[in-house]
Amino acid sequence: DGGITQSPKYLFRKEGQNVTLSCEQNLNHDAMYWYRQDPGQGLRLIYYSQIVNDFQKGDIAEGYSVSREKKESFPLTVTSAQKNPTAFYLCASSIGGVTANYGYTFGSGTRLTVV
Amino acid sequence: AQTVTQSQPEMSVQEAETVTLSCTYDTSENNYYLFWYKQPPSRQMILVIRQEAYKQQNATENRFSVNFQKAAKSFSLKISDSQLGDTAMYFCAFPYGGSQGNLIFGKGTKLSVKP
To answer: Quick check: A60 contacting B, CB < 8 Å?
Structure first.
């Protein structure tokens, strides 16, 4: 079955450490997205990529980095510059272009906790 | 600025009754889609229903329907015959920047269905 796989489900980070969240999709979707979810804040866009080898900052990109070397993969790195990284992270994909009209397909999320 | 507002942080409903979740938005675009997503305790985001702004007919998916008032920029979700499995966070979303934009989400409404 096609879908989006996020791993790991839970991740613990020590202060000053970089960590990478994995997102893989086999839907043949062009566009991929990373959102951060905090209680009472809804979903906020971190980064997005409409095509391979290209990505754009979203509303809260500071302290995060991404790459898009393959169509199927869009990993998110949470760097030590992100001062409050504890949150739930959601990866999503869509056909791209005008087809934000069809909405997004989401992964099951990664819960990141700073210890 | 384009925004999405969900004015009800929490709601509850008795099983088998009907409940309506409200959403208002602001956009200067003329043609766009609107979405309702459900996030149950598993935290998996699930597309519930979508509405094209050009269509006057309100979208319906089984027990879920919308009341779309384009002039008022209102997009409410009605859940009929509520079931315990409807307990979830519900998010309203639409693409800012027009049909090729990224989805922005409201802050969500936490719905509890009581037996």
So the answer is: no
Rounded Cα distance between B4 and B14, Å, is 27
Residue B18 CA to residue B82 CA, distance in Å, equals 6
What separation in angstroms does the CA of A48 have from each of A60, A76, B58, B85, B101?
11, 10, 31, 32, 11
Reference A88, options A5, A11, A18; nearest CA is A11
Query: What's the number of CA atoms in the CB half-sphere (13 Å) around residue A55?
Result: 25
Instruction: Tell me if chain B has a CB within 8 Å of the CB of A109.
Output: yes
Residue B66 is inside which H or E element, if any? strand B64-69
pLDDT tens by residue, B10-35: 999 999 999 999 999 988 777 788 99
Q: Does A58 contact B at CB distance below 8 Å? A: yes
Q: If you write DSSP's letter for every residue of A74-97 in order, what string do you get?
A: --EEE-TT-S---EEEEEEEE--G
Residues in chain B closer than 8 A to A42 (CB atoms): 91, 105-108
Mean pLDDT of B101-106: 86
A103 closest CB neighbour out of B42, B50, B100: B50
pLDDT, tens digit, 9 for 90 and up, residues B40-72: 999 999 999 999 888 888 999 999 999 999 999
User: Three-state SS for B21?
Assistant: strand
